[in-house]
Specification:
Layout: H1 2-5, H2 11-23, H3 31-46, H4 50-55, H5 61-80
Helix pairs in contact: 2-3, 3-5
Length: about 90
């Protein structure tokens, strides 16, 4: 499922994100949106300084989210673009 939404998402990220999506009641939100929210949460907490900004009391939660948002979007956009594009070779002749 994750691969159909974000093709290059690492498997170590996809599995917990799908499990997190499955555990919550999303009140009518589509599965793709729920997975996207879980992926953003993973990136924010695991791949940015978000938690450190909160721990050090340098920023409020909203300020820290805004501060790391460009990093989160950059990771998501890398995961959305497959690094390798394959073409079917046609036999000559």
């Amino acid at each position: 499922m994750c691969a159909s939404i974000i093709p290059v998402v690492p498997r170590r990220v996809a599995t917990p994100s799908l499990l997190g999506s499955a555990r919550r009641n999303w009140r009518g939100l589509k599965l793709g949106a729920a997975v996207g929210i879980e992926l953003q949460k993973y990136i924010r907490h695991s791949l940015t300084d978000y938690d450190e900004l909160l721990r050090s009391k340098m920023m409020t939660r909203d300020e820290a989210r805004s501060f790391v948002a460009p990093q989160v979007q950059e990771v998501l956009s890398r995961w959305r673009k497959p690094g390798l594009k394959l073409r079917v070779a046609r036999p000559a002749g």
